[in-house]
TrEMBL record:
UniProtKB keywords: Membrane, Transmembrane, Transmembrane helix
Signal peptide segment: none
Protein name: LcnD-like C-terminal domain-containing protein
Gene3D superfamilies referenced in this protein's UniProt entry, alphabetically: 2.40.50.100
Amino acid sequence: MNRIYDFEELTDSVELLNRKPPRFIIWFLIFLFGSLAISLFWICTGEINIVSNGTAIVKNKSETSIIRSQNDGVMGDIVITNGDFVKKGDLLFRFKSNKSEEIEVKAKAEGIVQFSDTIQDGDILKIGQEILSIVPKGSAKYAQLTLLAKDIKDIKLGDKVNYSFNSDTTNEELGTVTYIAAQPIFDKDLKEYVYRLEATMDFKEAQELPIGISGKVSIITGSKPIWKSLLKF
């Protein structure tokens, strides 16, 4: 026959019920609920930036002198190399036209020589082919930005720009949008319509970046509450 016990007789059960939970469990629960409260507060009050991403290429504000082939012919003697500093009137190279005329091409301005492509003596050149450019030394630089047409909608003059040129600097590479093209152009490489923009480069290392170097860019166009972003998921 089964015996019915009084609750007072179950001493182990009474001790178990009266025993306080271990202190580490109490602290764990406090930490858990505290973290949850902070997270909820952050989600309800915090904001995230809305950005449009694209590419940037460093340009020179001063006018660059571009040297093109004026006739079909053959490259003769090249007397300068990429990166050389030349003065106005310095001899750059000799060119033999298809009419067997030997032409001396001289610098129209002083600056740093940048060849458009690898060119050697004896290379065949076509009329209008870009051979090299002379970039003024020490002039201010800016960034030419390229963004897809779908990413241009909310961008306006004065928006903040973040650059990433993979340079050695640990500082933020920042700038400001100063120009937005009115119409897009078709990019043959991307096979999409893109917009050209211009922006300042407001960081110390900007002047050390070589002309023509490219990098990534993000433009901050606004912000929105974190909770709205989470609802999309």
